[in-house]
Amino acid sequence: xxxxxxxxxxxxxxxxxxxxxxxxxxxxxxxxxxxxxxxxxxxxxxxxxxxxxxxxxxxxxxxxxxxxxxxxxxxxxxxxxxxxxxxxxxxxxxxxxxxxxxxxxxxxxxxxxxxxxxxxxxxxxxxxxxxxxxxxxxxxxxxxxxxxxxxxxxxxxxxxxxxxxxxxxxxxxxxxxxxxxxxxxxxxxxxxxxxxxxxxxxxxxxxxxxxxxx
Amino acid sequence: xxxxxxxxxxxxxxxxxxxxxxxxxxxxxxxxxxxxxxxxxxxxxxxxxxxxxxxxxxxxxxxxxxxxxxxxxxxxxxxxxxxxxxxxxxxxxxxxxxxxxxxxxxxxxxxxxxxxxxxxxxxxxxxxxxxxxxxxxxxxxxxxxxxxxxxxxxxxxxxxxxxxxxxxxxxxxxxxxxxxxxxxxxxxxxxxxxxxxxxxxxxxxxxxxxxxxx
Lengths: 214, 214
Fold this sequence. Notes:
- Chain A is α+β, with helices and mostly antiparallel strands.
- Chain A has nine helices and four strands.
- In chain A, helix 1 links the parallel strand 1 and strand 2.
- Chains A and B meet through helix 2 and helix 3 of A and helix 2 and helix 3 of B.
């Protein structure tokens, strides 16, 4: 069986767990001893290590082309990878870093900065989150999923971030019903179950975190 | 001819310029009016836009498989993508953000934070840079290039960051001769020429920036 070395509140780690779930590949999840190392690490049955979300994505799409998470069509591919890259850079820097990385301990995020939470930073992240979700809302309404009619890496990347934000009760769901509807569909998938069982020691999730109708 | 919308000191933009050069694809480079937008953007001759380094990489590797920048071999692929991801996340956060993003204006980096340079942050970036380069030094010595015997995306990603750091005279070349030797080889390639001609208004590069023997 594959093993995945991860930490709980790191978006690329959460995304790797969702990808393995969508590919229906059973795996043993193991929390990293050193949260500052390069994660996630996927270990094959023969012990080969594949490190980082770019390499994990490439390996899983190449070796398990059933249930593809990147479409064949060039235009759709570009759109999936645009949203994936944007989520992992702009959304990460302006929202997740400013909220989740302030609220959760370094052991669960892998953030290189260790210092007390700064509420001004959290507030600036909330403003950016609200603006970004408003901008994203038309996508699942028009397309079905974020990039196209099918579930893709774009959905899993954003869901990885959103689920970490939701754990801390930071998503203004009622303001953005189209995104709430999209997230409810994601959350109902079997691949999501392990994430909904996450518990950060000393920081229980908000009550609705694991509920499928909220 | 392709067009590339970019900004001067953004590592993914610099990497896209190097990739186009290595693929021998002529392109017109155009500085983005809005440095905060998602960059780089590659515009085909028919006006199709491909946005972000992940999508640009996928498009160029798919449509221009000559001079491949990701090897076929699964183990080498994983190593290339591990180094690429590490450079774009860990190295970026701990070095480039702390040095280049402090020294260059937002118009040239696209950093979401706009505030005066913090010399303590720059100093912490210099410590991380020194440690990272010491750790990387054995790779080109043992392998030829960073990930394997051939030039790959791993080299272009690190060179994109290193060239921005070098512009500001921030690389301790004499301390890490193996990395200096690797960088001199990269810098001598035709793909590097446009980067060596970069000039940030009001901030000329250090004298050795464009010299091939330094």
